[in-house]
Amino acid sequence: MRQLLLAGLAGASLLLSVSAWAAGDAAAGKSKSTVCGACHGPDGNSPNPLWPNLAGQQAAYLVKQLKDFKSGARKDPVMAPMAAPLSVQDMENLAAYFTSQKQK
Fold first, then answer.
1. Domain count, the chain
2. Which CATH number fits the domain that encloses residue 63?
3. Helix (H, G, I), strand (E, B) or coil at 33
4. What is the model's pLDDT at position 49?
């Protein structure tokens, strides 16, 4: 019974941390998204099939990808320098903005 309770608490803690991790300000993200729009489209709907749509993606996924580009865990010669100057708050704000957009 105790293990079940601990497992439940661990699961709840994980869910809360993911929610907090993906929190951001969509308005601040929109103002920061101008550079992203050059490739991914102003609303996150890419005009070119070479670049992924960001519109409607999960916020936690977008934050993770940006963190990975910044840290070098995910390698891309174009995205690494784009992610390098971003703070975690910038990433969360961008994710909030693109998550709020409708994928076309």
1. 1
2. 1.10.760.10
3. coil
4. 94
Q: Which residue shows structure tokens 């019974």?
A: 1
For residue range 50-69, what is the model confidence (pLDDT) as tens digits?
A: 999 999 999 999 999 999 99
Cα–Cα distance for residue pair 10/14, rounded to 1 Å? 6
Per the structure, the complete domain to which residue 34 belongs is given by 2-100
Q: What's the token pair of residue 26?
A: 């969509």
Q: Which amino acid is residue 80, in one-letter code? A: A
Spatial distance between the Cα atoms of 90 and 94, rounded to a whole number of angstroms: 6
CA distance 86 to 74: 15
The dihedral through the CA atoms of 25, 27, 32, 35 has a sign that is positive
Separation between Cα atoms, residue 25 and residue 90, nearest integer Å: 9
Q: How many residues appear in the chain?
A: 104
Task: Match 């934050």 to its residue by tokens.
Answer: 63
Place of tokens 């070479």: 50
Task: Quote the mean pLDDT of the chain.
Answer: 87
